[in-house]
Amino acid sequence: MTLLAFDWLLMIEKLILIAIIVFASLGIALYTTFAERKVAALLQDRPGPERAGPFGLFQPFADGLKLITKEEIIPGSANKGLFILGPGLAMTAALMTCSVIPWSSHVELFDRKIDLQIADINIGILYIFGVVSLGVYGMMIGGWASNNKFSLMAALRGASQAISYELAMGLSLIAVLMLSGSLSLKTIVDQQMAAGNLWNIAYQPLGFLIFFICALAECNRTPFDLPEAENELNFGYHQEYSSMKLGFYLFSEYINMIMSSAVMACLFFGGYDIPFLDESKLAVNTAAIIGVLALLTKIVIFIFVFMWIRWTVPRFRYDQLMNVGWKKLIPLALFNMLLTGAIILWQQG
Amino acid sequence: MNTVQILFFFLSVLAIFSAVMVLFSKSPVHSVLWLIAVFFAISGHYILLNAQFLAIVNLIVYAGAIMVLFLFVIMLMNLNANAEPKKYWWMKFAGVISGGCFLVVLVSLVQQATELTGKQALVKEGNIGLIKNLGKVLFSDFVLPFEISSVLFLSAMVGAVVIGKKD
After folding, report:
1. Contact B65 A183 (CB under 8 A)
2. Measured in Å, how far apart are chain A's first and last C-alpha atoms?
3. Domain-located, residue A101
4. Which of B47, B59, B124 is the best substitution to test chain A (most A C-beta atoms within 10 A)?
5. Most buried residue among A14, A184, A271, A339 by CB atoms closer than 10 A?
6. In this predicted structure, what is the pLDDT of residue B144?
7. Residues B142 and B64 occupy one common structural domain
8. Which residue from B64, B68, B130 is facing A130, i.e. has the nearest CB?
9. How far B91 CA lies from chain A's nearest CA (Å)?
10. Could you give the ipTM of this predicted complex?
11. Strands A112-115 and A106-109, sheet pairing
12. Residue A101: domain span
């Protein structure tokens, strides 16, 4: 058979990796919903969910079961095809991001070197941008197909917010790319791991701050959760949704949070690097496992900060949101870009 | 047939089918969504030609930004089939004739172009489309056109702000 002459083993290896990463991110997202409730409880000085299982650990499964078993309602005046497409798109876009994130270095199994990254493409960061900009469609299509004016308003808000903050995010990223000279996330992480190099946060504190604020806005987290402002818009763009379709929307928000934490960890905090430890001295497989744990720790810390902000800061008004995005963050990001460029030129002599 | 050919035919069929659906969809929102599918298929072609940067920028700019604005406008105008202006038969006839003429011109142009005769597309090889080489070419050989087009963009942006400003 000359048809499809390519490395089938590589294909199988990648499929297994994809399955592991997708299920792991779904599992983590499941427990992120639990963590959200626990953190909220902690910050509001109350116990939080504690009935299902020890410390309430089975609560996410109870929630999931509840969502799945609820009645599915598609409103009569809704556009049926697009109504179903909306949550699917939101979920797909959220999960697609994970394919370019380097989860760790490589492991050696059965005499094969297996990279713990699904695809090391040389446009890694731009790929993430492309996928993020597609995530907007899930929201817009869902909001429009519901045929409800509140949903539509929320969807329009969400889309304009995402487009506005993507600009500042891209500009803050350019400074990082000027330092690294590569778009591949793997290369960016490797450069931060190399001996004598600090993490990018040391060179780009302002860039990180801008990127973090934009990530909050892209994930629709408070103080940027205008698309879900329940006191103005009832419930937001997923108002007409019920059962697991609503679950998909809520879930995709948490997966987006995990993925943006992973991207921030890779870009600014050394990815799977452990500070003050030379990974090259360890056995390959041990180093890989420690690397995964290091990256997960960084992700968890970021998620905690996301939640901490959500339960501390009140929501912006819509005009304030646009002012911050266009009049503060973009000029700041441009300034950061110019400064970085000038310093790089000056160092090159 | 190897993998590249299978992918090429799949993407081509997808692109043409989606493009036809853009024309035949009754609802403008569906048309926009099919158009996004066309952009995806074309980006797939760019990747087959190893022009990854072009592929992803095509998605970010067209599918990610411009089409979102299209959707915005269409959703807010709330167009539907009976709000469409009535078209007379001679209008349709004239449209078909002029469109057909344009198609003939395009096809003959592509067929006769001397730059294209005897050339083959570089599939899966050729590295001018990679971001490093593209950047070098843009900022050395084509720096003047590049800067002029950026000035053009800037003036368009200023113009949009001036028009959009209420006074």
Report:
1. no
2. 58
3. yes
4. B59
5. A271
6. 92
7. no
8. B64
9. 31
10. 0.80
11. antiparallel
12. 8-348
**Number of domains observed in the structure of chain B:** 2
Residue A1's pLDDT is: 41
The answer on B114 and B147 residing in a single domain is: no
CATH number of the domain to which B35 belongs? 1.20.120.1200
Tokens encoding B162: 């001036």
From the list B2, B64, B76, the residue facing A134 with the nearest CB is B64
What's the CA gap between A165 and A156, in Å, rounded? Answer: 14
Listed as ranges, residues in chain A with pLDDT below 70 are: 1-6
Roughly what angle, to the nearest 10 degrees, separates helices A243-268 and A284-310?
Answer: 120
Judgement on whether residues B67 and B25 belong to the same structural domain of the protein:
yes
User: Residue A216 domain-assigned?
Assistant: yes
Residue A203 belongs to some domain of the structure: yes
Whole-number Cα distances in Å, A274 to A210, A291, B70, B91: 24, 7, 46, 69
Are B19 and B30 within one domain? yes
Domain that holds residue B65: 3-81+90-129
Q: Minimal CA–CA distance to A215: which of A158, A270, A155, A261?
A: A261
pLDDT tens readout for residues B48-95: 888 888 888 888 888 888 888 888 888 777 655 555 666 788 888 898
Indicate whether B108 and B163 sit together in one domain.
Answer: no
Reported pTM: 0.85
Å from B92 to nearest chain A CA?
29
Whether A194 is in a domain gets the answer yes
Chain A with chain B: Cβ pairs closer than 8 A:
68
Instruction: Give the DSSP H/E element, type plus range, for residue A66.
Output: helix A59-69
Task: Give pLDDT tens digits for B25-55.
Answer: 888 888 888 999 999 999 988 888 888 888 8
Q: Scanning the structure block, which residue is given the tokens 């860039």? A: A207
Q: Are residues B47 and B64 in the same domain?
A: yes
User: Tens of pLDDT along A251-279?
Assistant: 888 888 888 898 888 888 887 887 777 77
Same domain, B59 and B114: yes
Residue B23 and residue B7 share a domain:
yes
Q: Cis omega before residue A75 (within 30°)? A: no
As a dihedral over the C-alpha atoms of residue A325, residue A321, residue A212, residue B60, rounded to 10 degrees, the angle is -60
